[in-house]
Amino acid sequence: MNVLIYAEHEHGQLKGETAKLLSAAERFAGESHVLVAGDNCQAVAEQVAHLAGVSKVLVAEHSCYAHQLAEPVSQLIEQLASDYDVILAASTTTGKNLLPRVAALLDVNQISDVIEIQTADTFVRPFYAGNAIATVKSLDSKKVLTIRTAAFDSVLNTGQAEIVSLDKVFENGQSRFIDETQTKSARPELTAADVIISGGRGMQSGENFVLLEGIADKLGAAIGASRAAVDAGFVPNDLQVGQTGKIVAPNLYIAVGISGAIQHLAGMKDSKIIVAINKDEDAPIFQVADYGLVGDLFEILPQLEAQL
Amino acid sequence: MKILVPIKRVVDYNVKVKVNREETGVDLTNVKMAINPFCEIALEEAIRLKEKGIASEVVTVSIGPQVCQEQLRTGLALGADRAILIESEQAPDALSIAKLLRQVVENEQPGLVILGKQAIDSDNNQTGQMLAALLGWPQGTFASKLEVKDNEAWVTREVDGGLQTLALTLPAIVTTDLRLNEPRYASLPNIMKAKRKPIDVIAVADLGIAVNSNVQTIKVTPPAKREAGIKVASVAELVEKLKNEAKVIG
Ligand SMILES: Cc1cc2nc3c(=O)[nH]c(=O)nc-3n(C[C@H](O)[C@H](O)[C@H](O)COP(=O)(O)OP(=O)(O)OC[C@H]3O[C@@H](n4cnc5c(N)ncnc54)[C@H](O)[C@@H]3O)c2cc1C
Ligand SMILES: Nc1ncnc2c1ncn2[C@@H]1O[C@H](COP(=O)(O)O)[C@@H](O)[C@H]1O
Which of B4, B63, B115 for mutating ligand 2's site (highest number of atoms within 8 Å of CB)? Predict the structure, then answer.
């Protein structure tokens, strides 16, 4: 079964998800082609070509694909789809925006957040905020899946695929890009980080997140947050971990001043080691923590920074 | 302009669901049900647009069994003008839901459809995008801000790297993120008034749309259980454990 993978990129850089989608695609035992669509993305195509397992890179370069808006990109994929049995994208905001639109154009269902590919038509996915895990079988003619990339390893950089240019253009008179505010950070991306330290409502203010920064610097960690911390305006929305934010599974997750609501746990409970720092010894976060430290975060964090 | 708001009846977000013994689904007996939180936000946004004079009518629709009337009634109490129930005892697949909604859109001719970004039971996050594709309309998903000006909807979207703003030509589809607004509570007088507002009940069969279930659930299991670990007494002990026992820091 041949697979088409949608590659995400930004500022000429391929994002890490594609390497993981390729290892998911191996399960279908066919050729894997990767689609790179954008304004100016030759450099990205070359990065893709080096990934193991890619047999062809399809590049669609045109201003209509700038910002990878769903309307033109879904039409592009619809046109290509007749050559493929499976279409994959990551469960990122980009993948989630795009792939259901593609599926509906192809008159098939889309299966979200796949964590395991059992056979070519049977997939495993969490639902109910991760409180239940479903094994589902798709009867549709094509499988259109978003993949939770945290559940798959990256392929190596040992490939050398052919790059093919597409000249398809879908002018988009329906949606116009206005602007984008990117949160600038020198830290690793949340979904790619080995270590994450997250703050919750207990942090009390955005300024207090400096207490996490010092520790993050020492551990090379990404900084995350609970929804309550985002809602209170302490930190920007893209730091939110949880059912409706980012799903992470680092080696070490440190939850500071976070109670452990179901929706937060849904985003981090697959982390290898969880540490919880909370002044309430009955906080539900301790039920999933490997190491719990009961106490006032304002006393604990400076000590932790000093001892690392 | 008319606004259509599809709402889904789901388990209340505070309930921690359990997988049933047969491992065929989750146990929903005597569990509190509610409007999906993202749909409540969608409804609130539509009602605010009506209060600002931008929308003329807010219609809410739900697809599901008879009991979904409870959630539609709540929607009416919150400020929707009328409600439609597409009655279906079986749960259709996501594509079929989108096709049923397309039919409602064709009957009602709204200028804007606002949906939740995600149902907290299925965690699908796809209906709005599918509906947009079926109608050939533009989409603004995961909205944290919505402004209607001239013939456009300006949508600020919560994306992985930050925020993105798009201008969509109406008619359009918008799906809501949590920060779009804070839904109101229904007042007692409005709950009373809602009892007199109409709910149109339409059987799926009467819409003439083939409904499938092409995604079959084979098995449902509980997630791997995490054993609660230990409490450490001091920062020094924590650092020592992370280094020597868990070996996750250098
Ligand atoms: C539809 C829906 C989706 C949601 N999605 C998400 C999601 O994706 N992610 C998410 O995180 N939430 C989500 N939520 C919200 C979730 O239900 C909780 O409200 C939220 O996670 C609580 O955040 P918190 O733990 O920071 O705050 P709280 O629950 O208020 O907990 C604060 C904690 O800090 C501790 N604390 C306070 N002061 C100190 C101190 N000085 N030292 C040490 N500890 C201290 C307290 O003991 C408490 O345990 C969602 C909710 C809904 C309805
Ligand atoms: N059965 C349904 N009835 C009405 N609206 C629905 C239904 N299922 C999904 N929706 C709408 O689609 C949104 C996203 O749901 P989902 O794609 O299932 O995660 C919900 O927030 C609702 O607005």
Answer: B115
Give mean pLDDT in consecutive 10-residue pieces for chain B, a chain of 250 residues. 98 94 94 97 98 98 97 98 95 96 98 98 97 98 96 95 95 96 95 95 93 95 89 96 93
Span from the CA of B100 to the centroid of ligand 2 (angstroms): 11
Token pair for A197: 């330290």
Chain B touched by A79 (CB under 8 Å): no
**Least CA distance to B222: which residue of chain A?**
A132
Residues of B in contact with A181 (CB under 8 A): 162-163
Please name which of B2, B189, B205, B197 lies closest in space to residue B84, comparing C-alpha atoms.
B197
CA of B26 to the centre of ligand 2 (A): 19
Domains and CATH numbers, chain B: 2-224 (3.40.50.620)
Question: Hey, what CATH topology would domain A3-166 get?
Answer: Rossmann fold (3.40.50)
Residue that has been written with the tokens 């280094």 in this structure: B243
Q: What CATH homologous superfamily does A190-307 map to?
A: TPP-binding domain (3.40.50.1220)
CB-nearest to B228 from A70, A181, A286 is: A286
Please tell me which of the candidates B16, B134, B162 has its beta carbon nearest to residue A182: B162
> At A128, is the secondary structure helix, strand, or coil?
helix
d(Cα B45, Cα B75) in Å, to the nearest integer?
12
Q: Nearest Cα to B132, choosing from B169, B107, B159?
A: B169
The residue type at B125: N
- Sorted by where each begins, the domain ranges of chain A are 3-166, 190-307
pTM for the model stands at: 0.94
* Contact status, residue B242 vs residue B248, Cβ threshold 8 Å: yes
B214 contacts A128? CB cut-off 8 A: no
Q: Is the separation of the CB atoms in A100 and B126 below 8 Å?
A: yes
Answer whether A3-166 and A190-307 agree in fold: yes
Ligand 2 binding pocket includes B63 (Cβ within 6 Å): yes
Helices (H), B91-234: 94-108, 127-135, 188-194, 204-207
